[in-house]
Structure formats: C-alpha cells, structure tokens
Specification:
Elements lengths: L17 H49 L28 E3 L4 E4 L5 E3 H11 L8 H12 L3 H24 L1 H14 L3 H18 L9 E5 L6 E9 L2 H7 L3 E7 L7 E7 L3 E3 L4 H9 L7 H12 L22
Antiparallel strand pairs: 1-2, 2-3, 4-5, 4-8, 5-6, 6-7
C-alpha cells in the first residue's frame, strides 16, 4: 500500500526521435563553421563599407583633382587642331596636339590624353563612352591605380601603421592623459557608457596582454563547502595570512563567466585545493562557455564513469569530499 504523502515518480523521459537527433547533430556540426564564416564576412563587409570605400573615394577625388590632365579647347592654339578633311578652311576639333602628347575630345567638350581615352575605350568594349572627361579619368584611375589588390595592400599597411602609431602615442604620458580624459567623458554618458564598457571588456580580453600570468588551474570550494569552482593560481599570498593559517597558502583568481579576466581574488590553503588536469586555455574555454565546453580528457573520464567502463583499479578523477594537499605554485 502506497503512502498517501509519497512523491509520485517523475515521468520517464521519452527517447529522442532518430530523425530529430540526426537533424540536431547536423546543426551542431554545421553551425560552428557557418557562423565563423558569417562573422568573418560581416567583419569584411563592415570594414569595406566604412573604411576601405571612403578611403578609396577620397583617393579617387585626389587623383581626379591633382592627377588628371583635363584641358579645354581654349588651352590649345589653333595650330593644335588638324584641318577638316572635307573642308580645309575649318578645323577638326575632335583631336588636338599638345607639346608631348595628343588629346581626344570627350562628350562634354573637354580633352583628355589620347592614351587615357584609348584605354577607357578599350574597357568599354564597344559601349558608349562616359559623358564627361572627369568620368573618363575616373574609370582610368580605377583600372590603373585603384585596383583591388593595390587598394587592399596599401590601405591594410596604412591601417596597421596608424594603429601602431596610435598605440605608441597612447602608451606615452600625454597620450595616456588624453585617453583617460576621453574615457572619463564617455563614462558620464548614461547609455553610451554601458555599451562602451561591455565592448571594452571584450576588446581588452582579445587584444590586450594580460598583466596576470596564471601558473595552473585548480578547483576550490567557493563560495561555500560543497560547491567547487575553477580557479587560476596567481602566486603565493601574503606572509601574514600564511602565518594566521599556520600552513602554506596561495592566491587564486575566481573567474566570472563569460569574461574570465574579471572575478574575485581570494587566498586559500594549498591543502584545500585540487589540481585539475586542464591547461590554461582549456580552463578559459570552460569559463567563457559557462561550462558548456569541457576539455576532452575530462569528458572522456566522465563518460567512462557513467558507462562503467573504468576498471576496478582505475583512478577516478572525482573531486574529493575531504581536502587533500595541492601542488606547489
């Protein structure tokens, strides 16, 4: 006879449909590379739209203003124009002879060098020529000077140089002062400061060399006994704390997810830590993914325990319920 207050057994979980399992497994395999490609394409399109294209337009304008030989009919003497073959008393103004080159007239009545006109005419491949001398020269510069391989190489090198000089400037005293003033102003703006702080955390994590050098990864019982937390060993702690504990202690960083360079620094007894078979990078992946990404050796050991595949004498890498001596820092 069942007890009137007995808790009913939870319903048995139905196995996942094979088709659904296969679809989810396929998504799990395809999404990481696809998302990586999409992110890189988005970054490339953003850089092209907001950096390369404006710089290319500015360079084209400079070339058109200062690197184009566009003339008017009045800049040539009458002798520069050949006589009309049908009426020798008139001049054929479709071409003109300069001091060292010949010129061709464009649709707007201006003149460009014959080699420029011929090059653009070849590019048009029988289609109508541009309606102005400026547009003729724009096509000429695009095909000669502003070719994609030249633009990407030049502006890529220029961008790296600017970033390098900016980094050197901000590392100097006056540059650091201006940067601090700029960030102070940003932090006074109600909405902007929240976005800026979040973005800065990500960029600092990706591009800034950390001042902390972690020696190894351990597990500590934090914030209370029975709750195990991954921690990074940063070094030996203070002498006074070690004297009060009456045994060796060390400093560890308790990272927060998903930004492992923020967290809490605590001092623990070495005997109350557990060395983990994890590299620093693997521990970072574990914290950043909020525990989703586990190192292969830890997943394999857990799977063996669950499946009962481990032999009777095999070592079980479970965290001990009683403290044991940790390694030296």
């Amino acid at each position: 006879m069942s007890h009137p207050h007995a808790t009913p057994a939870p319903p048995k979980k139905r196995p996942m449909d094979p088709f659904r399992r296969a679809v989810l497994r396929g998504f799990g395999i395809l999404l990481p590379p696809l998302l990586t490609i999409v992110i890189f394409l988005w970054v490339g399109a953003t850089v092209n739209k907001y950096i390369l294209t404006p710089l290319e337009d500015a360079t084209r304008w400079v070339l058109l203003e200062y690197g184009s030989d566009i003339r008017t009919a009045g800049s040539f003497p009458e002798s520069a124009f050949p006589r009309d073959s049908e009426d020798p008393t008139k001049f054929d103004r479709s071409t003109a002879s300069g001091v060292d080159k010949n010129y061709r007239r464009t649709a707007d009545g201006k003149y460009v060098p014959d080699n420029v006109y011929a090059h653009v005419e070849e590019l048009r491949d029988g289609r109508a020529m541009p309606p102005s001398a400026r547009e003729v020269y724009a096509l000429y510069h695009d095909s000669k000077t502003l070719r994609p391989e030249y633009v990407i190489t030049f502006f890529g090198a220029l961008f790296i140089l600017v970033v390098y000089l900016l980094g050197k400037f901000l590392a100097a005293g006056i540059g650091r002062f201006f940067w601090i003033q700029f960030e102070t102003l940003i932090h006074r703006l109600p909405v902007v400061r929240n976005v800026y702080s979040s973005v800065k955390q990500v960029t600092d994590f990706l591009f800034t060399d950390p001042d902390l050098e972690f020696t190894r990864v351990v597990a500590v019982e934090y914030p209370r006994k029975g709750i195990w937390t991954v921690a990074f060993v940063t070094g030996d702690s203070m002498l006074d704390i070690e004297s009060a504990a009456n045994e060796p202690v060390m400093s560890v960083l308790i990272p927060t997810s998903p930004m492992p360079f923020t967290g809490f620094t605590i001092t623990v007894k070495k005997s109350e830590t557990v060395d983990l078979n994890l590299s620093i990078d693997q521990a970072f992946q574990f914290v950043i993914s909020c525990g989703v990404v586990v190192s292969p050796q830890q997943v394999t050991a857990a799977a063996k325990r669950l499946n009962g595949a481990a032999g009777p004498g095999a070592a079980q890498p479970t965290l001990p319920s009683t403290p044991r001596q940790g390694g030296n820092s």
